[in-house]
Specification:
With 379 residues, this protein is mainly α. The protein has one domain. 66% of the residues lie in helices and 3% in strands. It has a three-stranded antiparallel β-sheet, with helices on one face. α1 packs antiparallel against α10, α5 packs antiparallel against α6 and α11 runs antiparallel to α12. The protein is globular and about 55 Å long.
Length: 379
């Protein structure tokens, strides 16, 4: 395998992350200035909160970049227990925070001076668990009990609690990460197909049990049929991209953020990038993500042990899956689902978790690389 200077790979991770974070700061302010003034009387409210999150996130990245990633496997069980406790605390009055005074959605816990979303923490915990589990059982992954029952049981426990909040987006992300890592870890194709088939009735029932989910699917199929109702977000997203054209209308000149495009500073910030920065800005953002993904996968391929391999792969997949879902929702390729765009959207919990993931990736990339990965053959 051709040797690559680890310092080059570290720079290849840090540069796109810092660039995306810088774009995020700019776009969070631009997208939130009016809603921030309307709600809080200051155009800087969301910006200051986002800058505080960026500071904490960068600090977490620096710390984890210096901590030997091998030590993290000793924290897997404590982190899993902590994840369960935090997920349960969401439902405790006085600690859990709902989406509104009359909302049944409870996804956050109160942590001064803000709130934290435990389901985001579960994603990185699940990656750590799977990396540790697969690397310890690499020669047993084709066995039903070891390769499927145990890891899927852990996944279902987390997903079950998260569904009570409910947070279908987090459930989907955890499922994608788990199934992809298990597939790469070597479980049999028929097990993969069996899991998918068994999960279909559950997904079907979940969609039917919540009218708003069915409404989102219908809006996805034909948003223009109900452009002022269920398809409103998607139609406004399309209009934002359309107005942007090649070069965009310019920073701060968006019309869609004037209370036309809901969640312009969070879930639909990619649409605002399309409007204000145009196709050129969109392609620049996509290019930065591709750069990061390539470096993340290269880190996995060149790491010296199987734990580091699956850990780097899982963390990269975690960021990739969220990015692709956000892009797909904003462009109408998937039904509307609230997932922030990594490093760019306003949203403290997701930003902190993604920056922590980057810190671990940097630490893995700094280690000497050789071919003793102990990887499994796919399928």
């Amino acid at each position: 395998m051709r040797y690559m200077n680890p310092a080059n790979n570290v720079r290849g991770i840090i540069i796109p992350v810092l660039a995306l974070t810088g774009i995020g700061i700019l776009m969070v302010y631009s997208s939130s200035v009016f809603i921030s003034t309307e709600k809080f009387g200051s155009s800087f409210h969301y910006l200051w909160r986002h800058l505080f999150t960026v500071f904490i996130g960068l600090s977490a990245m620096v710390v984890l970049a210096k901590v030997d990633y091998h030590k993290l496997r000793f924290l897997v069980i404590p982190l899993m227990l902590l994840s369960v406790v935090m997920l349960v605390l969401v439902f405790v009055p006085g600690i859990g925070v709902s989406a509104g005074p009359h909302s049944e959605v409870r996804r956050w816990i109160r942590l001064w001076p803000s709130t934290f979303q435990p389901s985001e923490f579960v994603k990185i915990t699940m990656v750590l668990f799977l990396a540790d589990y697969i690397s310890r059982n690499i020669h047993k992954m084709r066995d039903l009990r070891c390769g499927v029952v145990i890891p899927i049981a852990v996944m279902v426990v987390f997903q079950g609690i998260i569904l009570l909040q409910p947070d279908f987006g987090a459930v989907m992300s955890i499922g994608i990460i788990t199934m992809t890592l298990l597939f790469i870890g070597g479980i049999k194709w028929r097990f993969i197909m069996g899991i998918i088939i068994l999960s279909l009735p559950v997904v079907y029932k979940l969609i039917l049990s919540a009218p708003y989910r069915m409404k989102r699917i219908m809006a996805f199929l034909d948003p223009w049929q109900d452009a002022q109702g269920g398809g409103f977000q998607l139609v406004q997203s399309f209009l934002a991209f359309g107005r942007g054209g090649l070069t965009g209308v310019g920073i701060g000149h968006s019309k869609q953020k004037l209370f036309f495009l809901p969640e312009a500073h969070t879930d639909f910030i990619f649409s605002l990038i399309g409007e204000e920065l145009g196709l050129i800005g969109v392609l620049a953002v996509i290019s930065l993500f591709i750069w990061l993904f390539i470096r993340g996968f290269k880190t996995a391929m060149r790491t010296e042990d199987s734990f580091g391999y699956y850990l780097a792969l899982g963390l990269t997949l975690m960021i990739v899956s969220q990015t692709l879902v956000n892009f797909s929702v904003a462009t109408g390729l998937m039904p509307t689902k609230g997932l922030p765009l990594p490093f760019i959207s306003y949203g403290g919990s997701a930003f902190l978790v993604n920056m922590a993931a980057v810190g671990i990736l940097i630490n893995i990339s700094k280690n000497p690389w050789n071919q003793t990965t102990g990887r499994a053959a796919w399928g």
